[in-house]
């Protein structure tokens, strides 16, 4: 996906797109953003995988630019993306060590340091390369919100795993269902009330009090209410009390962390195997991302029907996953060869039901509306 200047004829009117159907554009990044901007449709998520500038010549593109040229070009694209994002929208950028520090600098400038969400580390391979001084097994994903407060209100948590929910048990046949216990003490200090410091008599008759430097989380009056409601666990009657937290009353979702292992979100090798199953006769695309990785980002940042933008379409993973997850998407790929060999046929396979790999089964994907090609 080489970066070039906008090739669109400035005297030619932009193609008309009403935003109702997904769109695939064979042109450069700025042309695609101009089409989005002219439509008035807001982007909820821009998920981009720009050239990393590794000073490497791949089979499908030459990933080597003067550093200043790379920085100027990619930052101009990101600035244009910022303009078409919704107020709760976000930009997530794949990158590696070659240009990550410079990307942080220009993204801080475009979005504002206060809107930085985090740097996710993706384990792109689980194998070790002994040919290099240090084996590189990860890449980064930089995440910025247009407005961090608005993004936080609307973002989605990750589904809880069995490991998180298995700790909820119903050891006493509580009619409210499975529960896990939580500490009833809190750190003492400014803001604590005198009513939070008291002795408590257990059902066994033993008198207990919080450890030095701590106090009860609740006043005696509130704790008595919880006891009467059966929401306090004393064990066999002689254990320090603990609060019963019911699975039915808690949000089981997980806030994303910054370490995404390959056995959870896929690896570069698993992404290549998926592409190889679709295009067995082609030389594999060198830098695809796994659908599981892309689906996690789309889940966090969007809801069904939202628009996902990728201006460096490559092998088409962003559009493929967005399609399967019921989102609209706008993809652009500059290189005609990549467009004809991978981007277009990949998305045609998805839209026609011929791609059952990746996240198809997870999202019980069925055929959606066709997409437009410009």
TrEMBL record:
One of its GO terms (molecular function) is site-specific DNA-methyltransferase (adenine-specific) activity. Residues 163-176 have a biased composition (Basic and acidic residues). Residues 43-339 form the DNA methylase N-4/N-6 domain. Residues 153-192 are annotated as: Disordered. It comes from the Bacteria. Its EC number is 2.1.1.72. The keyword Repeat does not apply. Keywords: Methyltransferase, S-adenosyl-L-methionine, Transferase. It is an enzyme of class 2 (transferase). Pfam families: N6_N4_Mtase. GO terms for biological process: methylation. It catalyses: a 2'-deoxyadenosine in DNA + S-adenosyl-L-methionine = an N(6)-methyl-2'-deoxyadenosine in DNA + S-adenosyl-L-homocysteine + H(+). Signal peptide: none annotated. This is site-specific DNA-methyltransferase (adenine-specific). It comes from Roseovarius gaetbuli. The gene is mboIIM.
């Amino acid at each position: 996906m080489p970066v070039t200047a906008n090739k669109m004829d400035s005297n030619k009117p932009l193609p008309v797109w009403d935003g109702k159907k997904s769109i695939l554009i064979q042109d450069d990044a700025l042309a695609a953003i101009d089409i989005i901007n002219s439509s008035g449709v807001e982007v909820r998520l821009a998920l981009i995988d720009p050239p990393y500038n590794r000073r490497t010549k791949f089979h499908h593109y030459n990933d080597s630019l003067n550093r200043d040229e790379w920085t100027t070009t990619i930052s101009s694209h990101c600035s244009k993306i910022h303009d078409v994002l919704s107020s709760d929208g976000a930009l997530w950028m794949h990158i590696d060590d070659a240009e990550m520090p410079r990307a942080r600098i220009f993204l801080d400038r475009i979005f504002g340091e206060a809107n930085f969400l985090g740097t996710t580390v993706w384990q792109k391979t689980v194998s070790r390369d002994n040919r290099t001084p240090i084996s590189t097994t990860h890449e980064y994903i930089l995440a910025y919100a247009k407005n961090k407060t608005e993004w936080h209100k609307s973002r989605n948590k990750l589904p809880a795993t069995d490991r998180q929910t298995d700790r909820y048990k119903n050891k006493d046949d509580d009619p409210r269902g499975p529960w896990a216990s939580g500490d009833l003490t809190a750190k003492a200090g400014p803001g604590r009330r005198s009513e939070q410091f008291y002795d408590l008599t257990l059902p066994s008759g033993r008198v207990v009090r919080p450890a030095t430097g701590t106090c009860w989380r609740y006043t005696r009056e509130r704790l008595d209410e919880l006891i009467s409601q059966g929401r306090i666990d004393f064990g066999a009657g002689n254990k320090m009390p603990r609060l019963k937290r019911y699975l039915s009353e808690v949000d089981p979702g997980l806030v994303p962390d910054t370490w995404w292992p390959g056995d959870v979100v896929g690896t570069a090798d698993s992404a290549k195997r998926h592409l190889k199953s679709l295009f067995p006769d082609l030389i594999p695309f060198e830098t695809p991302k796994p659908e599981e990785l892309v689906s996690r980002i789309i889940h966090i940042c969007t809801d069904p029907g939202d628009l996902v933008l990728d201006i460096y379409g490559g092998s088409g993973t962003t559009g493929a996953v967005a399609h399967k997850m019921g989102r609209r998407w706008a993809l652009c790929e500059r290189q005609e060869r990549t467009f004809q060999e991978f981007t277009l046929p990949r998305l045609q396979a998805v839209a026609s039901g011929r791609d059952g790999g990746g996240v198809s089964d997870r999202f019980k994907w069925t055929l959606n509306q066709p997409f437009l090609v410009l």
